[in-house]
Amino acid sequence: MIILDENILEGQRLLLEASRVATRQIGVDVGRKGMKDDEIAVLLRQQRYVTFFTRDADFYVPELRHSRYCLVVMNVGQNEAATFVRRFLRHPDFDTQVKRMGRVVRVSHAGLAAWRLRSQTEIHTVWSRSR
Fold it and tell me: How far apart are the C-alpha atoms of 50 and 41, rounded to whole Å?
């Protein structure tokens, strides 16, 4: 399941849905508007195999790694979110649910940085040339 933070614009959610990426959004389909970060983390742990996309950099901490979800912090413009969600979901290191679980990932124009469960090392990956 893909869950978008409420800080992802509705237009970006609609673009994802138009490209057949099934999403739910905090405050629209799941949870409630104005949820605090720690409440969102609890909500994610109650779900099964969730990938959560946000633009809130406070989520990019290794302490938030959990086997039931993947946190993706997008360090991109608010009108680029849908493009980078799709790009992330197609990346060979993250293109399946199994590959994503237990990770906290930061996505930017330059590439990706990730913390894996039970690892003390941050991994850096560049985008592949083909989009």
Answer: 11
71 Rama sector, left if φ>0, alpha if ψ -120 to 50, beta otherwise:
beta
Q: What is the pLDDT of residues 75-96, one digit of tens each?
A: 999 999 999 999 999 999 999 9
Among the listed residues 15, 16, 30, 126, the one whose alpha carbon sits nearest the alpha carbon of residue 69: 30
Please give the structure tokens belonging to residue 98: 């199994």
Q: Indicate the pTM of the whole model.
A: 0.93
CA angle, 96 as apex, 91 and 99 as ends, to 5°? Answer: 85
C-alpha to C-alpha distance for 27 and 80, rounded to whole angstroms: 21
The Cα 127–Cα 108 span in angstroms is: 9
